[in-house]
Specification:
By secondary structure, the protein is an alpha/beta fold. The chain has helices at 14-33, 37-53, 55-72, 76-82, 86-100, 140-151, 165-182, 197-204, 219-228, 251-263, 284-293, 302-305, 335-346, 359-368, and strands at residues 109-114, 120-127, 130-135, 155-159, 189-191, 212-216, 241-245, 272-278, 297-300, 311-313, 327-333, 351-355, 373-376, 396-397, 405-406, 413-420.
């Protein structure tokens, strides 16, 4: 059964559909696990060429999604995530090429040892197997996830959101053409051919067929996945990121970082949502004025609100809000200890940053903030796998198990022990 060729009217029930896709993905994963690096890289380069060759078809499909999204009342942030143009599609293809050029993690030796009895132990990286990815709005995830899964030897089942249905199908068609061109199994990258929510439930119940689920989307989607999944989940709920401007911050750096961290792209999970300013910092009003001038709505505590008539009073809920919009909450704090306490109480453990020229303060911040990504004198907008030199990312993980921060090739592998003996028996 080729699920991609079926029309919605002829699709089987969700469990049968996902069961069939999972079985085919499992077979493909066995081939990918032993595929040589050169074969995987060739497939990705072919997929990137197909993305470029099919630019017109992909952008036409995206235009349909954009019209539907505007009609449905999607926010400006969601529309920005959804929108493709030639430059963005070129970046997507470039990212696929970049993944192909990365070191293959499969088979990489983590460590080795020889026991006193002569047994030799080696720990090596192996693929996870079959990955299910459930995502919303972002058509680039279709290509990024496929590329990362393929290069790390995994098969992937993609279930994109209805907002990007046409874009996802067009991108997937290009990826499938690249796989076909190079002889790797097309079932290594499958796209669920229905937007029926029952298919999501079937994915979450697919024990034995799917090894891990990775959700990328809003809090409602991620919460549902975490509540219902019977397979392991790698996820984050929010990007409630903080920028702390220390009393010893360089004002020029602080100003540039505050504006960039908040306003470069407000709809991404690495955008700063709360700025904390030390009372000892000499130029807080300049930070506020620069954000307002950039078109940002500022919500502040009493100390910040007293600085400017352009500041709205912040409510208690603002400190726990991922705006994904041109809105920021700002608070005055009494030094580094208070900033650390605020971050500990309100951070989502995604990305938090300090601006300071005080090395000791910076090192304390880096050591004590318990987030997946902690920064010194850098914009939180750098919280991205591509910016970390990973080629692309499948998401930012904020939990503690398996992987944390940008999840790329290494994060999509596990390991096994290889034991080599010469006839040893255990006494």
């Amino acid at each position: 059964m080729n699920a991609e060729a079926l029309t919605p009217l002829h699709l089987p029930d969700a469990d049968t559909l996902i069961g069939d896709m999972g079985a085919r993905a499992r077979a493909a994963a066995k081939r990918l696990a032993v595929a040589p690096t050169v074969a995987k890289a060739a497939a990705l380069h072919a997929a990137a060429r197909q993305l470029r060759a099919q630019t017109t078809a992909i952008l036409d499909a995206n235009a349909r999604d954009m019209v539907a999204g505007k009609t449905a009342g999607l926010t400006a942030a969601l529309l920005d995530r959804l929108r493709l143009d030639e430059a963005r599609l070129g970046d997507i293809a470039d990212a696929v090429d970049a993944v192909a050029a990365l070191p293959d993690p499969v088979g990489a030796e983590i460590d080795r040892a020889t026991r006193p009895n002569g047994i030799k132990l080696t720990r090596v990286r192996v693929p996870l197997g079959v990955i299910g990815i459930i995502y919303e709005s972002r058509p680039n995830v279709t290509a990024d996830a496929a590329a990362l899964a393929l290069m790390s030897g995994n098969a992937v089942i993609l279930r994109g959101g209805s907002e990007a249905v046409h874009s996802n199908r067009a991108i997937h068609a290009a990826l499938a053409a690249g796989l076909k061109e190079t002889g790797l199994p097309a079932d290594a990258v499958q796209l669920v051919p229905t937007q029926d929510r029952a298919a999501v439930g079937a994915l979450l119940r697919a024990q034995g067929l799917i090894d891990i689920i990775i959700p990328r989307g809003g809090k409602g989607l991620v919460a549902r996945v975490q509540d219902e999944a019977r397979v392991p989940v790698l996820a984050h709920l929010d990007g409630i990121n903080h920028l702390y401007i220390d009393g010893a911050a360089d004002p020029a750096k602080a100003l540039a970082l505050a504006v960039n961290a908040k306003m470069r792209r407000t709809g991404i999970c690495g955008a700063t949502e709360t700025i904390l300013i030390d009372r000892a910092y000499p130029a807080p009003l300049a930070i506020v004025d620069a954000l307002v001038a950039a078109g940002c709505e500022v919500r502040g505590d009493t100390g910040i609100a007293a600085l400017s008539p352009h500041v709205d009073p912040a409510s208690a809920s603002d400190w726990d809000c991922e705006y994904l919009d041109a809105i920021v909450s700002i608070a005055m704090v009494d030094g580094l200890s208070c900033a650390l306490a605020h971050i500990d109480a309100h951070s989502s453990r995604h990305t938090d940053a300090i601006v300071t020229e005080d090395t000791a303060a910076a090192e304390r911040f880096l050591a004590e903030v318990d987030s997946a990504i902690v920064m010194h004198n850098a914009s939180t907008q750098f919280a991205d796998g591509g910016e970390f030199g990973l080629g692309a990312e499948i998401g930012i993980a904020t939990g503690r198990l398996h992987a944390r921060g940008p999840v790329a090739l290494e994060g999509l592998t596990t390991y096994k022990w290889l034991v080599r003996g010469t006839g040893q028996v255990r006494p």
